[in-house]
Specification:
It comes from Funiculus sociatus GB2-A5. With about 425 residues, the protein is an alpha/beta fold. The protein is built from 15 helices and 14 strands.
């Protein structure tokens, strides 16, 4: 996969003011697939790469045909659909749509994630629609017989935010399909890859597949109505309630409007913030520092199930007057897995700031070349494993010292870009 094809900002300074807004909006989408004969099943990739730019209206017939061929080759298989550890409405709805499409080819899909659902709207979405996604902890995955699966699928991620992928790959399960709208995060060897950094939502891409005929939605089928409702929520969520939607998003929403349940969607959106989320927002307000229109806040330790309070706090801080970008982060502790990780979210209203480039520049890569985070238009996130320093928080003084160290280090990396000596970021 050629990352320079997918990232129009590759090699440039972060959010360079010299790049016009028009160039960002008209950069086009990129679809990469592997040309394969539609005959016998193959577990390995065929020779030759197929890559092209497509319009923002809907995928060309050739792309849909290549996905159809991929599904046909694996008719009757059993696949794992892997989501990021903390799946959002875009990922959840896209995975469900893929599952329903794959069902037409007698492919049985299981939608799984390693983290948890903590955002109140995500919990409501899964409960009210019966969305078939399940949590697989790392320990429980190690005890499962993965030999029953013939392939895995990545929806709304490229494996960098999915703890399950390395274990699945270790079991020898090939990646069949990758569908995502984030900039390139990882080099993946998949049969079919549709990555569109200029598309606002993965739900839009999956809806376009439906429009192209891979699955004919039927308003008399309950799962179709509920999936259409989930896709509408995912699309709405990743376009900031359609305020950042493009023509293709409105076209997708128009198509879904024929099938979705408005009352069900309203019930999902009426979910209230929990007291714990409000406490984290309060902490972010208390701890924030504002420099050059950036608001940066560390919120300390959070329970694993409260992780989604971090992006909600970032959503809140970016609404402050004279702030165009907010970054909120904390140390998330998973008692079940004895795991600690620094997790952060970025939100921005600055059109010339690329969250993907900003986060990659700030935090870099691990020893294997995997970036600690990335992003899309107006939003991004990062996860940094604490490794040897993780756990053992029974001693409150030690926990305090550990937080101060990580808090200072993260602020230092962020402020290096916010107040650059080498003009990495330009002011308004």
């Amino acid at each position: 996969m050629q990352s320079n094809l997918l990232n129009p900002l590759n090699g440039s300074s972060i959010a360079a003011e010299s790049m016009s807004i028009d160039n960002q909006q008209n950069s086009g989408s990129v679809v990469e697939t592997q040309e394969m004969e539609p005959t016998a099943k193959q577990s390995s990739n065929a020779s030759g790469n197929y890559s092209r730019r497509v319009s923002n209206e809907r995928p060309p017939e050739r792309v849909v045909e290549l996905l159809r061929q991929t599904l046909e080759r694996h008719r009757g298989d059993r696949q794992l659909v892997l989501l990021q550890d903390f799946p959002d409405p875009d990922a959840l709805s896209g995975a469900w749509a893929y599952q329903l499409i794959a069902k037409q080819y007698n492919i049985q899909c299981e939608i799984v994630y390693a983290g948890t659902l903590s955002h109140q709207e995500n919990i409501a979405l899964v409960k009210l629609t019966g969305l078939p996604a399940r949590r697989w902890g790392i320990q429980s995955l190690k005890e499962k017989d993965l030999s029953v699966y013939q392939g895995c699928v990545l929806i709304d991620n490229q494996g960098t935010t999915c703890q399950l992928l390395p274990l699945v790959q270790q079991a020898g399960i090939p990646i069949r399909v990758v569908i995502d709208h984030h900039s390139t995060q990882n080099e993946l060897n998949a049969e079919f890859t549709d990555i569109r950094p200029s598309t606002r939502a993965t739900a839009t891409i999956l809806t376009q597949y439906l429009q192209a005929g891979l699955l004919k939605l039927d308003s008399s089928v309950s799962d179709h109505v509920k999936c259409a409702t989930a896709l509408m929520h995912g699309l709405r969520s990743d376009t900031n309630r359609l305020m950042q939607a493009q023509e293709e998003d409105f076209q997708a929403a128009g198509y879904l409007s024929r099938f979705y349940d408005a009352q069900l969607l309203n019930a999902v959106l009426q979910a209230y913030r929990s007291k714990r989320v409000m406490d984290v927002i309060e902490r972010s307000l208390t701890n924030r520092i504002v420099q050059n229109n950036f608001s940066i806040a560390g919120v300390g330790y959070l329970r694993y199930e409260d992780r989604d309070a971090i992006p909600q706090a970032a959503d809140f801080l970016v609404t402050e007057e004279n702030v165009h970008t907010a970054v909120v982060y904390g140390i998330v502790h998973d008692e079940d897995e004895e795991l600690e990780v620094v997790i952060g979210s970025l939100r921005t209203s600055k059109l010339t700031l690329d969250p993907d480039e900003f986060i990659k520049e700030a935090f870099g890569q691990d020893s294997q070349g995997r970036f600690f985070g990335g992003g899309r238009l107006s939003a991004g996130g990062f996860e940094i494993p604490m490794g040897f320093l993780g756990g053992f928080n029974e001693n409150s003084e030690y926990a305090k010292i550990k937080w101060e160290v990580f808090d200072s280090q993260i602020k230092q990396k962020l402020l290096r870009l916010v107040n650059p000596k080498d003009n990495l970021l330009h002011g308004e």
